[in-house]
Predict the structure of Leucyl/phenylalanyl-tRNA--protein transferase.
Amino acid sequence: MTIYLTELAADSFTFPSPDSALSHPNGLLAYGGDLQPRRILSAYHKGIFPWYGPGEPILWWSPSPRAVFNPKTFKPAKSVKKFQKKHHYHISLNRATSRVIELCAAVRPAEETWLNHEMRNAYQCLAEQGACHSVEVWEHEKLVGGLYGIEVGQLFCGESMFSLTTNSSKIALWAFCQHFSRHQGQLIDCQVMNPHLQSLGATELPRSQFMQSLLTLREESVSESCFQPQWLPCPFVDSSEERV
């Protein structure tokens, strides 16, 4: 059976079913449209996200399997735990989202990043609307690491992270998992597995299972205070873990 990609209409925010995504390349579903906040949010609520390279049209994806973190069971490597005990970076939420987005793009070679000017502007607009959120890691007064993504109910769709110093992005993820879990967050989507995510403990879900979780979690809410700008406590190791 031949599957043809759908070209998105400029005046419509509907998407084809993720089940119709290509197997090769994995998850490619549609092309075209634009990066209006309403279209991007519609995509995320259906398990779809934009990703495209230089010279390409806007491409929309829903891969299988899907890489995810369970924030309730996330455990950093022992080396990260030891590092955090000695260094104690300061961690904040939604205090420098635009800078996090810009640095996520800046740390990668221009020819390798999907975070072009239009993508950065789109996510910064979503941040202004309260849908895109960031975690920032500070060393003294310098922003040295962080991550950002989109809130979809009790699911957080991680988009990108950066690190300028040792373990800073890992500690951002660790602190966010604990914070998100405390506020009824249930799942963190990180799209496609890679060696870095695997080293952090990400697992994979078939698209069908991910979509089933999404349909439930997008209808539930995290605590009202979850994404208010704030300083986060340093991530901690449960005493029962230290005894293991």
